[in-house]
């Protein structure tokens, strides 16, 4: 592995260790006195030098087309002052063998993938498998792993149990319009929109729980932040009040950021991908939906609703307005108390103001909503009435409703879009570059 730093280096005065390295050619510079190969594997980069002489007679530039896989032998040495070689070392090659050639003609990777790969460009999306070979795309994917592991570690420290609910379901969570339907042995079934309902059913037996599973949404809008398949970090907490939920969400985000920044490699990725990134200061700003409506109307010029009119109570805050507000305020916002009418059927009403729910979205500069959560209806009758009001046949939900029959409790939870969180930390313009192979309307390949 090219990031292995345990090998003894040589310099002008002493011999280094002779090593054998595998990798792919990431960059090539052919000079008069030497050829430089920037070798790459999934772990790092290594500068390899072939001094002009017998060795250089065995190849021309085409032998070393970019992405060629190769094994090289030689002595690992410290580079002289002022050299830009990664990790301050280079391999003085004395033998090599090409293992897998790569095209150097029209099919050369540089012709397939431009350096400033535009995530909206169809050719770039078709060639995502090649785009992923680039430093930026692969850094984002490496960082994603750190972020995911930071969530897992933090939940573990909080004694929250990881579970794995089914992806094949017969109930909706976030509205019928974004359901992916399919035929399940002759019955209608869906790909899950959220594991929330299942998490709620297991808190009596397992205590606080979380999962990191895929959620699926048949979104019809092609925005920067919508995917048809995304990684959903969801947690459900028992015997809490709304304020506990808000505290917890702020805590988990802050601790995950701390963990990622505390890791040397992960913080290096952030420094290159998003040099501006700063850990958000606590406490996060809190704002009620109703205050947000006023705030939007008070701007000069006012930020209108989707129809171009001033916002009124009950309006959805659309993506564009939400993002403008977050960018102007420029810090994380816990936006709370959304009206009953624009929120999901299961959300608990605020006992002090029955027009609104005990709900929260977390908004982040550059991205907007990254978390959606709420307290859940505890009462059986109220839940049955909510199904009716939302035109949901309650029979399919018997197992969820039973939660209110067998020892109901004040509880709540949230879902966080991992790609959106990553887009925020890694400064990515769109969630499409925050997942290996993005899925959205019109795209199901590669
Ligand atoms: O706000 P949402 O729809 O809430 C729920 O699904 C709740 N049932 C979660 C819960 O309480 N357990 O989705 C939660 C988060 C959003 O804030 C967003 O970050 C992400 O999931 N998300 C998407 N990410 C990418 N593409 C999409 N189409 C997304 N839809 C939601
Ligand atoms: Mg939401």
From TrEMBL:
<keyword id="KW-0067">ATP-binding</keyword>
<keyword id="KW-0436">Ligase</keyword>
<dbReference type="GO" id="GO:0005737">
    <property type="term" value="C:cytoplasm"/>
</dbReference>
<dbReference type="GO" id="GO:0004816">
    <property type="term" value="F:asparagine-tRNA ligase activity"/>
</dbReference>
<keyword id="KW-0963">Cytoplasm</keyword>
<keyword id="KW-0648">Protein biosynthesis</keyword>
<dbReference type="GO" id="GO:0003676">
    <property type="term" value="F:nucleic acid binding"/>
</dbReference>
<dbReference type="GO" id="GO:0005524">
    <property type="term" value="F:ATP binding"/>
</dbReference>
<keyword id="KW-0547">Nucleotide-binding</keyword>
<protein>
    <recommendedName>
        <fullName>asparagine--tRNA ligase</fullName>
        <ecNumber>6.1.1.22</ecNumber>
    </recommendedName>
</protein>
<keyword id="KW-0175">Coiled coil</keyword>
<dbReference type="GO" id="GO:0006421">
    <property type="term" value="P:asparaginyl-tRNA aminoacylation"/>
</dbReference>
<keyword id="KW-0030">Aminoacyl-tRNA synthetase</keyword>
<feature type="domain" description="Aminoacyl-transfer RNA synthetases class-II family profile">
    <location>
        <begin position="141"/>
        <end position="438"/>
    </location>
</feature>
<comment type="similarity">
    <text>Belongs to the class-II aminoacyl-tRNA synthetase family.</text>
</comment>
């Amino acid at each position: 592995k090219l990031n292995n730093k345990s090998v003894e280096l040589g310099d002008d005065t002493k011999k280094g260790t002779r090593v054998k390295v595998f990798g792919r050619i990431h960059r090539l510079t052919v000079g008069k006195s030497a050829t430089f190969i920037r070798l790459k594997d999934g772990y790092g980069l290594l500068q390899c030098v072939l001094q002009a002489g017998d060795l250089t007679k065995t190849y021309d530039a085409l032998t070393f087309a970019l992405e060629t896989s190769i094994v090289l032998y030689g002595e690992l040495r410290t580079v002289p002052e002022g050299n830009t070689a990664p990790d301050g070392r280079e391999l003085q090659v004395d033998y090599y063998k090409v293992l897998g050639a790569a095209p150097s003609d029209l099919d050369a990777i540089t012709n397939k993938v431009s350096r400033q790969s535009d995530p909206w460009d169809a050719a770039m999306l078709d060639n995502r498998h090649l785009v992923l070979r680039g430093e930026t795309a692969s850094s984002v994917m490496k960082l994603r792993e750190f972020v995911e592991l930071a969530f897992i570690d933090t939940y573990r420290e909080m004694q929250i149990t990881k579970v794995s609910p089914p992806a094949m379901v017969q109930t909706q969570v976030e509205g019928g319009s974004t359901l992916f339907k399919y035929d399940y042995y002759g019955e209608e079934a869906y790909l899950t929109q959220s594991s929330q309902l299942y998490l709620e059913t297991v808190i009596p037996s397992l205590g606080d729980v979380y999962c990191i599973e895929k959620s699926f949404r048949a979104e019809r809008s092609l925005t920067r932040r919508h995917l048809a398949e995304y990684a959903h970090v969801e947690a459900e907490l028992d015997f809490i009040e709304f304020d506990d939920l808000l505290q917890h969400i702020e805590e988990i985000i802050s601790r995950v950021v701390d963990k990622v920044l505390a890791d040397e490699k992960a913080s290096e990725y952030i420094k290159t991908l998003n040099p501006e990134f700063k850990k958000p200061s606590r406490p996060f700003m809190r704002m009620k939906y109703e205050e947000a409506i006023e705030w939007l109307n008070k701007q000069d010029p006012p930020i209108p609703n989707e129809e171009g009119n001033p916002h009124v109570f009950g309006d959805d805050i659309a993506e564009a307005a939400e993002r403008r507000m977050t960018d102007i305020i420029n810090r994380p916002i816990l936006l709370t108390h959304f009206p009953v009418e624009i929120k999901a059927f299961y959300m608990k009403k605020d006992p002090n103001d029955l027009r609104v729910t005990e709900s929260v979205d977390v908004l982040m500069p550059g991205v907007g909503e990254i978390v959606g959560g709420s307290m859940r209806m505890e009462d059986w009758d109220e839940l049955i009435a909510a199904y009716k009001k939302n035109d949901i046949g309650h029979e399919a939900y018997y197992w969820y409703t039973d939660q209110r029959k067998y020892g109901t409790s004040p509880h709540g939870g949230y879902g966080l879009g991992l790609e959106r969180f990553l887009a925020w930390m890694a400064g990515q313009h769109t969630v499409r570059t925050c997942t290996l192979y993005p899925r959205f309307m019109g795209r199901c390949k590669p």
